Predict the structure.
Amino acid sequence: MVPLLRTEADNVTLTVLLVSEQMVTRNHRMQYKKLYEIWNRYESEDEYTTSRLLRESSNLVGTGPIPANIEDHGEDE
């Protein structure tokens, strides 16, 4: 438990440093911009599936890429 708390303390220190340098804000702004671009393509392109939207956005939020071989069960309506 102590090593985990030490790691968290180091992360907080790094986060404070990055926030003070506005690097975190810039990173979040870039992520949201990409997410809005993906969402706009989803709404405007007929062939842009929900599965593709989720696959591409999963990379932005850190859940990793969703494998392309997962079955696509069609569009939600």
Summary: The CA atoms of residues 7 and 13 lie 10 Å apart. The helical segments are 2-20, 23-44, 50-61.
